[in-house]
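thread: overnight batch results

M.L. [08:02]
morning all. the overnight job finished for the chain we discussed friday. pasting input first so we're all looking at the same thing
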Amino acid sequence: MSEQELKAELERLKAENETLKAKTARATSIRVSEKGGVSVYGLGRFPVTLYKEQWRKLLTMADAITAFIAENEDKLKTKTEERGTGKQADPPA
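M.L. [08:03]
and the structure it wrote out:
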């Protein structure tokens, strides 16, 4: 392969990689669990499932949770940060 063909192939593979990454990004969804709970999918590896009264209690605390996060911003990490280092982790391949 010529250098020009290699560059074209590299660009094609980069574009394909970006397309695949976009497809793996999960949208959030809500479902009723087998046991009658409310399950939110797409936040992490596993769904977050609570019963309706637990969700209602949590939702009434939304302002308090938002304030808590704001007050503790410097101590809290995002999902993409590596544990213990405070630096951004490499995105999954």
